[in-house]
Write a structure and sequence with these properties.
Strands 1-3-2 form a three-stranded mixed beta sheet. The chain is about 65% helix and about 5% strand. It is globular. It folds into two domains: about 5-255, no CATH class; about 285-370, Tetratricopeptide repeat domain (Serine Threonine Protein Phosphatase 5, Tetratricopeptide repeat), CATH 1.25.40. The two termini are about 30 Å apart. The protein has helices at about 5-15, 40-60, 65-80, 115-120, 125-140, 155-165, 170-180, 195-210, 215-230, 240, 245-255, 270-280, 285-300, 305-320, 320-335, 340-350, 355-370, 375-385, 390-395, 405-420, 425-435, 440-450, 460-475; strands at about 90-95, 100-105, 110-115. The protein is mostly helical. It is built from 23 helices and three strands.
């Protein structure tokens, strides 16, 4: 079987939705997905998911921003809470890529490109795509790809799964990875794709309505992408190459949406703020972006003034114009009231201007009102570290480890531990940071160095030694 066809076949099992030629396959019985089948155990799937995520972080730029991270997790779990998949584990993240796309990986890892958020006109449109991916995971569409993986180690399978996703943007990556790791034939996976896509549309729409979001957002968004596809031909959105949209599919979605009666919640303003933040974070030309904001604000060519002024303040700060950013954010707060997003810009603008005490006070007061908020905690800790208050920064960061935490938190905590005179703890957290990015040998080196430090007590040393053995096993099984 040609390499490219194998890549497509695996992508289908991932819920990427590549549609084969029409076949009568929809009537074929689906494979046994019960725990007694020849599929991965829950523990094996969890390990596969973690290995998959390490592969992605190694090759893609995952946006590691606590505000963005919090938003996508909260939205994702709002949808999960209104689905039949509440007992399953999901992990949501945003990729720094302006292509309009989303994908699902093993163990409920769901990636959303920044471009998809930027292209969505409201939260319902974004939610429609995420709910679709949740449905792929919940209905075990991904598991069917693993049936052809017998005899492969989990690291090898994780690399292959990641390669299939990465290959949707760069086919050369996929071919190299598959040529090196795949011997089986995945052609039979093609048979289930069209049925899987329809099923995911249907279940995703149910989730939207139950979450009090607009089910019409799914056909509306798909229709707009299809129109863009026709206008731009070979520059079609990535989403359409991995989730083909037909007129009949849109029509069927519209008919289904009309059957749902839902009570919409008020518009979530955080969606529009995150959208502007991503516009700044993904910009490659700050000067042009600033000019764009100025023109749009002058002409009034925006939908939500509060979000546009916020984006402009962020762009000013990113362009090292803190005095202008401070004026803009103060005016925004005066007009619209205080929000955590505005507080972060306010504090960082003051700090950038050298008003250290004022900036730290803003952070301290805000954190008192919203204790353990990830964005406030990390911003405040970073500012404390920069001003020689490492122990206080450490005390703020340590409680966050009991929550969902990101690689940036681990790296920041490592800095705080080292500056507080705890080199062993610093090496331990750095090891976890590099482990998340798939740099296993570097992680191993830091763990071994941690054992040599005097601040590591015997109970910690035992835990570190166990972690060393775990990472060595991963390396022996093919992960580097």
């Amino acid at each position: 079987m040609p390499i490219k066809k194998i890549a497509l076949a695996l992508a289908l099992g991932l819920g990427l939705g590549v549609t084969p030629p029409v076949t009568p396959a929809e009537e074929i019985d689906l494979p046994d997905l019960s725990p007694s089948g020849n599929l991965l155990s829950p523990e094996e799937e969890r390990e596969l998911g973690e290995a998959f995520m390490r592969q992605l972080r190694h090759q893609l730029e995952i946006i590691d921003d606590p505000e963005v991270d919090d938003y996508i997790w909260n939205l994702g779990y709002r949808l999960v809470a209104n689905s039949d998949f509440k007992t399953r584990s999901f992990h949501f993240f945003v990729v720094n890529d302006r292509a309009i796309n989303a994908f699902a990986g093993p163990a409920g890892y769901i990636g959303v490109n920044a471009g998809l958020i930027l292209a969505s006109r409201d939260e319902s449109e974004l939610s429609a795509v995420i709910a679709h991916e949740i449905a792929h995971v919940g209905q075990n569409h991904l598991q069917r790809a693993y049936q052809a993986s017998e005899g492969m180690t989990l690291p090898m399978l994780a690399a292959l799964v990641a390669a299939a996703i990465l290959g949707s943007q760069n086919p050369n990556i996929t071919e190299a990875a598959i040529a090196a790791t795949l011997a089986g034939n995945l052609q039979r996976q093609l048979n289930f794709t069209r049925a899987n896509e329809r099923e995911a549309d249907h279940i995703g729409m149910q989730i939207l309505a139950q979450a009090r979001l607009d089910p019409h957002a799914m056909p509306r968004f798909f229709g707009r992408l299809q129109q863009k596809d026709r206008l731009y031909d070979n520059k079609a959105p990535e989403f359409l190459r991995t989730h083909p949209v037909t007129t009949s599919r849109i029509s069927e979605s519209e008919s289904r949406a009309a059957q749902y009666h839902y009570k919409p919640l008020p518009d979530n303003e955080q969606f529009y703020l995150i959208k502007e933040k991503l516009r700044v974070l993904t910009s490659t030309n700050n000067k042009a972006l600033l000019e764009k904001y100025r023109t749009e604000l002058r002409q009034g060519s925006y939908t939500h003034a509060f979000a546009h002024h916020y984006g402009y303040a962020l762009a000013l700060l990113a362009s090292r114009k803190p005095a202008e950013a401070l004026r803009e954010i103060r005016a925004l707060i005066e007009r619209y009231g205080q929000r955590i997003a505005y507080t972060l810009v306010l504090a960082e603008s003051e700090l950038a201007l050298g008003n250290t005490e004022r900036g730290l006070t803003i952070y301290a007061q805000a954190l008192h009102l919203a204790p353990q908020n990830l964005a406030l905690s990390q911003g405040y800790a970073r500012a404390l570290l920069q001003n020689g208050q490492a122990e206080q920064a450490r005390n703020i960061l340590l409680p966050l480890l009991h929550k969902r935490h990101s690689p940036s938190l681990l790296r920041l905590l490592a800095r705080a531990e080292r500056a507080s005179g705890h080199p062993g703890a610093a090496h331990k957290y750095l090891a976890e940071y590099y482990y998340r990015y798939g740099h296993l040998r570097t992680a191993l080196e830091h763990l071994q160095q941690a054992l040599e430090q005097s601040d590591i007590v015997p109970s910690e040393a035992k835990s570190i030694q166990a972690r060393i053995q775990q990472i060595k096993r991963l390396i022996q099984h093919g992960e580097s």
